[in-house]
Amino acid sequence: MVQGQRENPDGRERLVRTAFVLFADKGFDGVTVRDIAAASSVSVGLINHHFGSKDGLREAVDEFFIAQFEDAITGAAPQELSTTQDPAEVIDAWIERHADDWPTIVAYFRRALLEESDWGFSLFQRFYGFVQSTVMRMDAAGQLAPDVDRLWLPFLMMYLEIGTMVFDPYIKRVLGRSGYDRELWQRRHRAYMTLIRRGTAPRRAPD
Amino acid sequence: MVQGQRENPDGRERLVRTAFVLFADKGFDGVTVRDIAAASSVSVGLINHHFGSKDGLREAVDEFFIAQFEDAITGAAPQELSTTQDPAEVIDAWIERHADDWPTIVAYFRRALLEESDWGFSLFQRFYGFVQSTVMRMDAAGQLAPDVDRLWLPFLMMYLEIGTMVFDPYIKRVLGRSGYDRELWQRRHRAYMTLIRRGTAPRRAPD
DNA sequence: TCAGAGACTGAACAAATGTGCAGTATGCGA
DNA sequence: TCGCATACTGCACATTTGTTCAGTCTCTGA
Fold first, then answer.
1. Do A192 and B29 touch (CB under 8 A)?
2. Looking at beta carbons, which residues of chain B come within 8 Å of A30?
3. CATH number for the domain whose boundaries are B7-61
4. By the 8 A CB rule, do B110 and A114 touch?
5. CB proximity list for A145: less than 8 A, separation 6 or greater
6. Residues of chain B with CATH 1.10.10.60
7. CA at B94, C1' at D15: how many angstroms apart?
8. Which CATH number fits domain A60-198: 3.40.50, 1.10.357, 2.60.40, 2.60.120?
9. Cβ separation A163–B164 shorter than 8 A
10. pLDDT 10s digit of each residue in chain A, 207 long?
């Protein structure tokens, strides 16, 4: 880990960070090694020098993404469902903190899922385990009706979470603003909580 | 629209159908014109002859997909929510009917949405209008509690629907079988309906 | 001060891929 | 029967793209 040059240092790290943004934006196949090198202000050869191949770079970027992703969701989602107290400030602070990096993280996440690769699956599984433990906690706390399907509920909740992330670009085009905008996001959170808890029917079902 | 050859006829249609399957399986960039031509048992040149370019072929395949998709969902989803009667047989029949083509349709749909292209957006919008009208019908029928967020509900319902389609490959790897398998699909439908109607909390909320 | 290790460069190479085009075959209308 | 439109073929071409490698530069340790 010794830097062996004066000008143009930290090529390796710049490559990873730049490739992360480019992959998220255009996808792995949509970016050439020349694009990455140029955007990183290094030569093409440096990619293979550090990572062996373009695929090697991808692995490094994947690891970088995992770190970013876990860092972002840690301390964000768990409280939303397990406690009953109003988490408005928690969410506000979270949005504030990740306003810059979140869009890129989400975009990369989308690509990972789309590619249906092994590591996209492991990401899905990680998320699944996360939601499942939330459901088990709800169950233990007596917050689940006995006839709720314990198999499907985690998946349905995942769909709600992931959908919000993955389809935000479309939300933006339909509503004119991102679902992560403060007011919209607060509303979404309430709508989400209400749906999970009480559904949509009036207290006294009409039928 | 005149066939001008004897052997190897209907090249155009075979190209579209073959490309549809290949695009769904490997994505647009993951398939070469030579792959498509070979799988269609035609020459490479025929693609540009009929469609001008690979992109032209994609447009034709997109149209083909839209037709397939609309044909498949028409008469499937609307009844699920608007009526209270048990739609088990309807769904059963639907699964039976589309057992062969549905996986490919879903795979293609998934790519279209996740690629964030213009036409993926128009697909999203179409779906949105579809779900929104369902919600409005529910509302008119008095099936929505007054404090339900009318803005977010259609999106959340979309996420539930789309998630099932888009993440089916992962479901397959987590549960060992497709979410569209009969028994699993029936259960999913019940779980979905229950969640939308009543949520997950017991009748008497514990808090 | 010298040698080596490692970061870095950039031209050259080979493979892959979309497209163009000249040529062939066949059915239809005149 | 002739001519034209059109489906179709397949080779050739230009471009793109990932990879290789010989060579340069700079820091570190002996």
1. no
2. 29
3. 1.10.10.60
4. yes
5. B198, B200, B201, B202, B203
6. 7-61
7. 48
8. 1.10.357
9. no
10. 334 334 555 889 999 999 999 999 999 999 999 999 999 999 999 999 999 999 999 999 999 998 998 888 775 655 445 455 556 677 778 778 888 888 899 889 988 887 877 788 888 898 899 899 999 999 999 999 999 999 999 999 999 988 988 898 899 999 999 888 888 988 999 999 999 999 998 875 444
